[in-house]
Amino acid sequence: MNNHCHDIKHHSLERRGAKIHYWLTKHHSTASTVILTHGASLDHRMFDTQVKVLHDAGYRVLTWDVRGHGLSKPLGEEFTVQIVVEDLEEIIHKHELDEIILVGHSFGGYVSQMLTFLRAGKVRAMAVIGCMDIMEVPSFGMRIAYRNMSRIFRMIPESILRKRFAEGMGITEAVQNYALNTNKQLTRDEFIEVMDVGVRAIYEDPLFGKEYFIQKPFLLTHGEKDSAERGTFVKKAPDWAKRELYCQYKVIPNAGHNANQDNPDYFNGVLLKFIENLNHNQK
């Protein structure tokens, strides 16, 4: 992590064959903890700008490298959304975190959705960036396509696959270079596995129940120019926002899939306003 402040402490825990690394800022007794979960093949550094802004605003911040990513090696016994959620639950339990605000990017958004369902009593609010509703049932054709995704990935030359994926992460060269460097931290098999698990999160039933909706304040965002998954996040977001009772929907201008990195100033303003409104509404 780029150490923006001296109040960040590096921790680790071992669980199910992986050593999970995470970073937690100094405790603020009256503030919520904001937990930032990165997308597939990325790492905690994608939130460096958000850590500084949130910490300066008085919030405790937790970032982490999901198993297999960044410093959290190896991938471990198995990689599923459920196992990643359990990893995060262990961290939350270890530090007795409560009233948490979850922020998830793409795959991290699926993790945040599942944790919000499973541990609603601990979650105060949730925000996602470039993510789909895991309650939505894809068409039959899309389910077939998703189930064959890993085979398709294996047919593409590795260097082309990595480069193409990185280019879909952002509209700025800096973000694309970051995404390429981070996905190279995964072996070819690991890269394909984490991508496949991210895709499966879209088409597999999370078993929340047909009538489920997010029962917490919810911020739904994506980059204006998000081209990941052929623009699916941009296309699906408006309808998702309409289905949710407590949703605020914001499009981040001049930004791609990693909207918080492409246009950090705008995104940070949106996120801070969302969190500050939680405090005002509580009074």
From TrEMBL:
One of its GO terms (molecular function) is hydrolase activity. The keyword Glycoprotein does not apply. Residues 34-268 form the AB hydrolase-1 domain. GO terms for cellular component: membrane. It comes from the Bacteria. SUPFAM superfamilies: alpha/beta-Hydrolases. Pfam families: Abhydrolase_6 (PF12697). Coiled coil: none annotated. This is Pimeloyl-ACP methyl ester carboxylesterase. It comes from Natribacillus halophilus. Keywords: Hydrolase.
